[in-house]
Write a structure and sequence with these properties.
- The protein is α+β, with helices and mostly antiparallel strands.
- It has two domains: 155 residues, Thiol Ester Dehydrase, Chain A (Roll), CATH 3.10.129; 146 residues, Thiol Ester Dehydrase, Chain A, CATH 3.10.129.10.
- It has six helices and twelve strands.
- A hairpin with a 4-residue loop joins strand 5 and strand 6.
- It comes from Marmoricola endophyticus.
Length: 302
């Protein structure tokens, strides 16, 4: 049997949108999860891999946001496949696309293929009753092998915040909601992206976005890249976690933020790198960063 990409048609919701009218960066990761579960749970070409649909944990996400996606009545197309199978992990790649057959251009001819997001996810099977990872079975490797294709390789793990910089990182108390937790008692991987988003919005507020740079300048920003390493589970405990955020690089059009979710003992549960780009709302393209905004960010670099 030839190896194929799995295609999932994901319905869109009004609540998927952000303040700019684009699909929010958090929601894209939810689309990836829906496509992955659909591939492994409902459309596996052979039996034996049923536990891979939900009985896994995410080790790493790398998401590149190529262009904005707006709300429309038809579903969004998510293509996914497997790029690597190892003893206890496997890697999946995804593209969220507008397929040439999905729409027509203004002259009625076939439209070009448009890519909105490219992503990879590293996953490991997990024994939740014993809170430990496990190896892939031969049957699971066979299932995954049917979707095996070439694809991008995950990059190196994110670097820890230097001890000298820990004290200067912005701190955001994290309130874990009951609805954040999955059936196994762990916070769902998508929610971490939301946690880092909430923390950076508070970081911007505390940097004085309403005074020196202006609210509109801080709002006209889009996420270009999100990389997350998942190191240990976050559980339902409202007072036990915080998110630390810091500005790690400032360029002419973009800047990088680092982030960590830490528990009450200071152990790192997840680590993130997010690249944000200054955005022209009229042209929907990147734009030079306003000078007042860049000045505020440069002052915040540890």
């Amino acid at each position: 049997m030839p190896h194929v990409r799995h295609v999932y048609e994901c319905p869109m919701r009004w609540a998927d949108l952000d303040l700019l009218g684009h699909v929010n960066n958090v929601t894209y990761v939810d689309y990836l999860q829906e496509a992955r579960i659909d591939m492994l749970t409902h459309h596996a070409p052979v039996r034996g891999g049923e536990e891979l649909g939900e009985g896994v944990v995410v080790v790493r996400h790398e998401v590149q946001f190529v262009r904005p996606l707006h709300l429309r009545s038809r579903p969004v197309r998510v293509e996914c496949w497997v790029t690597e199978i190892r003893a206890a992990t496997f890697t999946m790649a995804y593209e969220i696309v507008e397929d040439p057959g999905d729409a027509e251009d203004t002259e009625g001819s076939a439209a070009e293929r448009v890519v909105y997001v490219r992503a990879t996810t590293v996953l490991t099977p997990f024994v939740f009753a014993e809170e430990r990872p496990r190896r892939l079975s031969a049957a699971e490797k066979e299932v995954l092998g049917r979707f095996l294709h070439d694809g991008p390789e995950p990059t190196a793990p994110l670097q820890a915040l230097a001890p000298s910089e820990v004290g200067s990182a912005h701190r955001y108390p994290l309130a874990v909601r009951w609805s954040d937790v999955d059936a196994y008692g762990h916070v769902n991987n998508v929610k971490y992206v939301e946690y880092f988003q909430e923390a950076r919005i508070k970081l911007f507020e505390d940097l004085g976005r309403d005074r020196e740079a202006g609210r509109d300048e801080w709002s006209a920003v889009v996420v270009a890249t999100t990389d997350i390493d998942y190191l240990r589970p976050v559980l339902y405990d409202r007072g036990a976690y915080e998110v630390r955020s810091w500005v790690s690089r400032v360029g002419r059009r973009s800047y990088d933020l680092g982030g960590e979710v830490r528990d009450a003992e200071g152990s790192v549960c997840a680590r993130a790198r997010v690249v944000l780009v200054s955005f022209d709302l009229d042209t929907e393209r990147s734009a030079p960063m306003p000078a007042p905004m860049r000045t505020v960010l440069e002052r915040a670099v540890p």
